[in-house]
From TrEMBL:
Residues 64-119 form a coiled coil. Residues 12-34 are annotated as: Disordered. PANTHER family: L1 TRANSPOSABLE ELEMENT-RELATED (PTHR11505). This is LINE-1 type transposase domain-containing protein 1. Gene3D superfamilies: 1.20.5.340, L1 transposable element, RRM domain (3.30.70.1820).
Length: 284
């Protein structure tokens, strides 16, 4: 229904309600005189209403049109992006598999490099706790004679044949410098001589005897790479508990802890429960 029709019907109803007050002759004269004027007024009102509506809705129409164009543009871009993503996924999926293979290869190579580094250190020992300056100006000569004497090892001419001996470097970047003496790295000419020193040091430890130098306790360890030492560091808490219950242990290369407790050799993680079982009676 148009606005013109609505107003005309409304006026017709209004005329009907007032028909009792006017005579048929008056109604006929009024219809003939006022109908054109009323129709013109209704048309003018209708035009004004349409103009107002158009003025109000025109900005909204332009805004909706702009949004529609923008949405259409976004739709085209999203379709393009989806296509590119699909292409990238086709490229990336094989690359991910390649990366996993390469990561495994890198891990294997790192382990092999670390193993080679430790093989190069097989003839080295690390001496900890020796006071600074004890080796004098010639560390090589000092350790050639001091090691067999301190560990009661018989050698030809009373000395070992060494290739080099030196203190560890000082970390100048350390914020809290330590007063502890630096460790000493000694490299033997013969692997057998190095092993004799390690065995002698181990036997002293088993006998609860300490290697001393001017009252300072000196300890001898196998020289190992930083990666293996980090693995050994993870056993520190376990070692303290083993000492507390009187168990003996030996660190086996590269990172295996061999434990002896009450005549039982425990080397696997599953044996931890047996340590607790064996130790339980002594706690009561």
């Amino acid at each position: 229904m148009s606005i013109n029709t609505y107003f005309l019907r409304h006026l017709d109803k209004k005329k009907g309600s007032n028909s009792e007050e006017t005579t048929p002759q008056d109604s006929a004269s009024e219809d003939g005189a006022l109908a054109p004027a009323q129709r013109e007024m209704i048309s003018e009102i209708t035009a004004n209403i349409f103009k107002i509506i158009d003025d109000k809705l025109s900005p909204l129409s332009h805004l909706l049109q702009a949004h529609r164009e923008e949405l259409d543009s976004h739709g085209e871009r999203i379709t393009e992006v989806e296509g590119r993503v699909s292409v990238l996924e086709d490229i990336v999926n094989p690359v991910e598999d390649t990366v996993k293979v390469m990561e495994q290869q890198v891990m294997d190579l790192r382990e092999r490099i670390d193993d080679l580094e430790n093989r190069g250190r097989r003839k080295n020992i690390c001496i900890v706790g020796l006071p600074e300056g004890a080796e004098g100006d010639n560390p090589l000569r000092f350790f050639e004679s001091w090691l067999p004497k301190a560990l009661n090892i018989e050698t030809k001419a009373g000395r070992f044949k060494l290739e080099r001996a030196h203190r560890a470097l000082v970390n100048e970047m350390s914020a809290t410098p330590s007063n502890k003496p630096r460790s000493v790295v000694v490299r033997f000419h013969n692997y057998q001589d190095k092993q004799r020193v390690m065995n002698a040091s181990w036997n002293m430890g088993m006998k609860k005897e300490a290697l001393k130098y001017d009252g300072a306790t000196v300890m001898i360890f196998q020289d190992l790479s930083a990666a293996v030492l980090r693995k050994h560091k993870t056993f520190d808490g376990v070692k303290k508990r083993l000492k507390a219950i009187g168990a003996t242990y030996n660190q086996v290369y590269p990172a295996l802890l061999k434990v002896t407790y009450r005549g039982s050799n425990l080397q696997r993680p599953s044996h931890c429960g047996e340590i607790h079982r064996l130790h339980r009676p002594t706690q009561r």
